[in-house]
Amino acid sequence: MTDKPIELDEHRGMAAQKATDLRRLLAEVAANEQALRATQDALEAQLIAAPASNWEEAADKVRYLLSLLAATPIGQDPRRKILIQAVLDDFTRLSRHV
Q: Is 64 exposed, middle or buried (0-12, 13-18, 19+ CB in 10 A)?
């Protein structure tokens, strides 16, 4: 008997190794999606918790909503992409003057 573990992946065929790698990657993606969703839920709860106390806080909320819109098929329309970017640029420019 040996204390050295046997690497089973080395004894599988190429197709089995690829299938195993794919399953591992899919599990990792699912875990990352769950972590992202939990972070988004926490952020949204914080954004909802209290009204904005100034224009910059309100702009932060709008930035978040625009980022969600930009990730949708509607937000991918070229005109809407330009409009979203223009609004974000306006927020950046105007927040420097506050």
A: middle
